[in-house]
Amino acid sequence: MNKGFNKRLILASASPRRRELLSIITDDFEIITREIDERKAEIEMENKGTPAVLVSEGLALLKAKAVFDGLPEEEKANVLVIGADTSVILDNEIFGKPKDKDEAVSMLTRLSGKTHVVATGVALITSEKTKCFTEETPVEFCELDQFQKDLIESYCSTDEPYDKAGAYGIQSGGATLVKKIDGDFSNVVGLPVSRLAREIETVIR
User: Fold this and answer.
1) Would you give per-residue pLDDT tens digits along the chain (205 residues)?
2) What is the distance between the alpha carbons of residues 137 and 19, in angstroms, rounded to a whole number?
């Protein structure tokens, strides 16, 4: 879909998966990122009692704001910055990106036989408006039988789990671990395409 918008769109994310998903809505956008201390921000939100399911929304806003604030003043009136962050949450605990194989195996083992929530927070910033929302998708993993254990071991021996929240990518090898999802598939990948298309319209209208 090549939908034109009346503002310059900037995706504040280097994720190749988000780039692919946003291109479903429009291919007329650019990517600009700014470094933020995500772990520090996450801890601050947790200390303030922010529900786990809303932490990604807060991080998305920080990412988008860092990019928007870094633009020259004369460019801001014609810009829409999109920030996004995705969390895997089980029992109100956020599963981040695993640091090594042992942690990846542990995460996927804990997720097996249970239903967790994938929450993608999105922030949209223009000079006139700031709008944030969170899309939640329940994901049920297969039971932790020997087959699942072998799949986890094999999957964690690849490079795939280590740049993904919760140690899996549903759009590729991680799909073998999943029994079913209840909601937006693209949200689990990293960007809720259908809702985002509509929210963009409400912000730039």
Assistant:
1) 556 678 999 999 999 999 999 999 999 999 999 988 888 888 899 889 999 999 999 999 999 999 999 999 999 999 999 999 999 999 999 999 999 999 999 999 999 999 999 999 999 999 999 999 999 999 999 999 999 999 999 999 999 999 999 999 999 999 999 999 999 999 999 999 999 999 999 998 7
2) 20
Q: Are 134 and 53 in contact (CB under 8 A)?
A: yes
188 phi and psi angles, rounded to 5 deg: -70, -30
CATH code of the domain containing 78: 3.90.950.10
Q: Annotated catalytic, 85?
A: yes
- Whether residue 71 contacts residue 146, with contact meaning beta carbons closer than 8 Å, is answered with no
- The contacts of residue 38 (CB under 8 Å, 6+ apart) are 59, 62, 85
Which residue from 27, 2, 8, 45 is spatially nearest to 126, judged by alpha carbons?
A: 8
**Does 1 fall in a domain?**
no
Whether 37 maps to a domain, the answer reads yes
Residue with tokens 């929530």: 117
Q: Which of the residues 28, 85, 102, 184 is marked catalytic?
A: 85
Q: What is the model's pTM?
A: 0.92
